[in-house]
Specification:
The complex is a heterodimer of chains A (about 120) and B (about 425). With about 120 residues, chain A is of the alpha+beta class. Chain A has a single domain, classed as Alpha-Beta Plaits, CATH 3.30.70. Chain A has three helices and five strands; from the N terminus they run H-H-E-E-E-H-E-E. In chain A, strands 3-2-4 form a three-stranded antiparallel beta sheet, covered by helices on one side. Chain B is mainly alpha-helical. Among the domains of chain B are: about 5-100; about 105-165 and about 180-230, no CATH class. Helices cover about 75% and strands about 0% of the residues of chain B. The relative contact order of chain B is 0.05. The chains are: A alpha+beta (about 120), B mainly alpha (about 425). At the A-B interface, helix 1 of A face helix 1, helix 11 and helix 13 of B.
Amino acid sequence: MLYAILCYNQEDVVCAWSKDEDDAVMEKLAVVQERLTREGRLGPVARLMPTTAATTLRKDRDPPLVLDGPFAETKEQLLGFYVVDCDSLDGALEVAKDLGKANPGGSYEIRPISLFFPGEAGA
Amino acid sequence: MTDLAWIEGAVVAARPQAMAALLRYFRDMDAAEEAFQDACLRALKAWPKNGPPRDPTAWLIMVGRNAAIDAVRKTSRNAPLPPEELLSDLEDAEAEAAERLDGSHYRDDVLRLLFICCHPDLPATQQIALALRIVSGLTVREIARAFLVGEAAMEQRITRAKARIGAGDAPFEAPGPVERGQRLAAVAAMIYLVFNEGYSASGQAVEARGGLCDEAIRLARLLLRLFPAEPEMMGLTALLLLQHARAEARFAADGAAILLEDQDRSLWNRKMIGEGLALIDKAMLKRDPGPYQVQAAIAALHARAARPEDTDWRGVDQLYATLEIMQPSPVVTLNRAVATAKVRGPEAALAMIEPLGARLDGYFHYHGARGAFLLRAGRRDEARQAFDRAIALANTAAEAASIRVYLDRVSAEAEKTSRGA
């Protein structure tokens, strides 16, 4: 079984880490990631940019509504995610709108990725 | 990360929101500060014992408020409130407070706190010092170090600034849309000033002031989280990130400034650049340009160029032309001329800056840029005169050194020509 591990933390605290503090945490994480990679168990890993870079597409209406900022509702739950290569936010919104036409209802939050390792588990 | 480090991080992160809410409650800066201090001390005792609260900001606001009320009651011999050890278990009360925090007036609280620091009666440096003390929570010692003054002098400066603004006449009613826009603009300008205090530092001051850039970015992100649809806040945050991304490459080991074109681009911080580019990309979709967005777009063109020769100078030139219309100033035109020289040659750039001579005659960078254009145009004698003038106007040893490099080039070229003749 593949499991997704979703990372939650206080963004303003993490963003305020100095480069040294950030590097130290990433280094400790890398040790765990390397072990999982050796065992062939690690899939994609992504570090997202802060929510200030987020855009939300509400696809519960037609046409869908583009909102600045992260997904903020608490009545809906995270059910899945995509990683798509796009030239710009506009391009990412186009993809999200196409997906939204196929599966209306709810929202997509579009967040640029700052760090990405494709990984190989389940490939 | 240790408990203590986590608590410190959480308290620092919570400070602007908590101070803003306490200020609305007490309508007095000193009372709000005291209440916040009190809450922090109690957090240090309570959190390691009971575990961190679900919402540290809400906890600090509630405990700070209650502590202040408690103090009043004690002096009036009334029954005290329950201690904060119990408070951590009051999930319902905490949830209620957290919900209130999400309310719309909460973002106006933070905006108000910052806006009070931008009081027009205060000179820019005092606005910055006040914001760093009250909003960011830097110690007087840290601020004094950044401004290269003694601690006592800075303490006095901040006390005076506080007395001057006397939060008593601060606007506590919710602002209308126009007023909110004006406050945002004033606060954005102040954040940019904080950043520039750090960014313009040179030599030994770089280390002391570098933190100001990080602090400005933190404040810009905070405002952007509160006002996520404001394109100029996206632009400001992007601009600060894109400029700060070059920090590691801006100075040589001996402290001399390194020009953008000569910087080792592998030292640029890719993470910050990525975030800055994402933000300016997002801002442009709003189709509501402003000066911060245009400046960020210029910085983005530099950041996107893997090598200096890959720079889209035509784009830079056009963006500066836009900025000239939005925010006409001789310094903007001078910056534009650098791009114009790349696109249309040094004579075109010289023609562009010639009319600025009267207004920028005492400006180091004007003569430095003019000398560089003249040198490229092959007008060596005039170039030498311009560089001499620039050296005379240099504010720092590093500035003078950067011009001497040009003067050496003038001499070398003159020698080459005389030998060839």
